Structures are given as C-alpha cells and as structure tokens.
Amino acid sequence: MRVRPATAADNEKLIAIEQLTPQGGQIQLVSERKDYFFRAKKFADPIFLIVEDEEEDMILGIMGVGPVLVRLNGETRRGGLVFDWRSNPQAQKGLPRHMFRLWQAAHKEILSRDLDFVFGYVKEDNERSMGIITRFGAKIVESKDFLTMPVHAPFCLRRKEVAKVTFTAAPNEEQDWQATAASFGSQDLFPDRSQREATREQRERYLLGRFSYQGSTVKVWDTSEEYTNRVLNIPRLFKAIRPIFRIGSKVLPLPHIPNLGEEIKVWQLFDLILDKPEDLNPLLEKVRQAAVTRGIHYLVIALSPEDKDYQQIAKKAWVRPRYNLFAMPLKEHIPLPHPPTYLDVSYL
C-alpha cells in the first residue's frame, strides 16, 4: 500500500469509484463528471492524493486539499479546503487503516504549505470520514442544508412583478464585489480579494449571471455541463405515480420523478440578498422560468439554519441534504469559524 499524488492517468479509475457510491434512498443517483479533476483544477496548487494497493492495482481512497485565502475572525488566513475525500467501496476491509494513511500523508503536505487551518464539508451521515478527522482534532462548527426546490410549479403568480426581475449575464465585477462584501464580508470563510482573483476563470465559466428584483438579488452557478447525476434506481411505486406527479406539478411544487438512466441537472443559487422578504417569490420565479427553458430539474441553495433567510426558503425545499462544516486549527491562537459562515460556491 502506498500514497502518491493523483495523475491524469488515474482519471478513469477515479470516475469509476465515484460511480460505485450512489447517493439517495429510494431514488438512487450516481454522480458523473467528465473530468474527475475538475474540482482540483479550481485551486492554483492543490494537494490531491490517492492511496493504492500496488499488488491489486486498485485505488483504495482519494483526498484533495485546496489552499484558499479567507477571512477568519476579521483577519485573512491561509485555509485548506478538504474535498473529494472518499474510499473505494470495493475496499471496505481495512478502511480505517488506508484512510488514516491517506490523511496522515495529506496532513504532512498541509503543514508544508504553512496553512493556518483546514476545513471542509462532509455529509451528515458519513460517520466514517467524520470519525477519522475528528480523531485528529477537527470540530464540527456548523451545518449547511442544501435546500432543493423542484422547478415545475411557479413560485409566484404575479406576472407583472415577475416581469420586473432583470437578468445580468456578466455583472460589473467591482460593483458586484462591493455588494457581496457589504452583505457577507463580515462572515467567517468569506474569500479574500486575492482569492477572488484566483477563481476568476471559474466565475467566467460557471457563473450564469445575476437575477435582480428591486433591491434583492441572487446569482446562479451552472456546472451542469461538467457534473450531473444519473438515475441508478427507481422504486416501482415511483414509476406508477410518475404520471400523477407530472400533472399535479403544474399547480403544486412536486418533485420531478425521473426515468431510469436519466440525467438530473441542478442550478446552484448563491449570494442571495433580500431587501424585503416578499421579494423572494418573484426572484425565484424568474430563475425557475430560465431553468425550465434550459432543462434544469432543481434549484439548490446551501444555507445554515442560522442564516436569516433560511426559514423562508426551507418551506419551498422538497429535500434538504445536510452537510457538516468541520474545521481544525493547525497553529496556536487560530480560532474556529463562527457561524453563520460564508459558503463559496466555487468549492462545489
């Protein structure tokens, strides 16, 4: 067993491992990406390691860490975002040993980069990964719910109000930064200005644009050409009620029941700024209409229960997968992030 940096030659094996770990309960989805490294490529100098069984020629586990500059307790700190941390389900035997080896190797690399702390998002039911990293000293500091809204039924029937919502494909960069910083700049994990420069390429590629209604705005992040979810299993009952849901969804926000093998595409909403609570429905409706024309099935926004707009949006969400934010200081006097924290959409 050895740990080494992942290379392009590992791409097909890594994609195959991801396809062996479907998500969901009754309806199972398997993640598909054209390039497994598309998340790692978002960082200038990422740590991206695999642990493999040389005798069996098998990758046992993967772990990435992306260096970022973020705000923490009012200061700019060098953080490390942990991503794509998973084990090959075909190598369940001895999981703690090879995953601990992987974490230990990554930890050495992290220390060599002079990072102040590491953090990451782990699905709430992923007890194995959380068990490993908390054993090394990480703490869970917050939870984020990925509030998932179907796009069939309208959010707002006031056509005149919806017509007032405008769309800007390429917002003025300076004005957009100032508005975002004014609303979220005091939150921990908000990116430093230089970090925003580092993600310019990702914003140009995945930022669909900004929707605005009076003093309220929301942005849309679209990675559907890079990353989708394919339906792996559907219960017979769901197949039977699909026609009923299709008709009912014209008037009710019922979920899309997909066909076996169908690709599910989502838009990630972020940087929601509401001037007034009543602005939300016209804003979401304009986004919904745009999503339907582009074949998008769900709108998702990640919020903490501590976020001020959480309750209003949570009422519209059909499902709410929860992820825990963990953090671990690497130096003395480095504080843990204080919720509610900022979730940079480029991490997703």
Describe the structure.
This protein is about 30% helix and about 30% strand. The protein starts with a strand and ends in a 19-residue tail after the last strand. A hairpin with a 4-residue loop joins strand 3 and strand 4. The chain folds into two domains: about 170 residues, Gcn5-related N-acetyltransferase (GNAT) (Aminopeptidase, 3-Layer(aba) Sandwich); about 170 residues, Aminopeptidase. By secondary structure, the chain is α+β, with helices and mostly antiparallel strands. The chain has a twelve-stranded mixed sheet. The protein has a three-stranded antiparallel sheet with strand order 2-11-12. The model has no long low-confidence stretch (mean pLDDT about 85).
Low-confidence stretches: none
What count of structural domains?
A: 2
Mean pLDDT: 87
Q: State the helicity in percent bands.
A: 25-40%
Summarize this entry quickly.
By secondary structure, the chain is of the alpha+beta class. It has helices at 11-19, 95-112, 127-135, 159-163, 173-184, 193-198, 200-206, 236-248, 280-293, 310-314, and strands at 2-5, 28-33, 47-53, 58-72, 75-87, 117-123, 139-150, 166-168, 207-213, 216-221, 227-233, 263-264, 266-273, 298-303, 322-329.
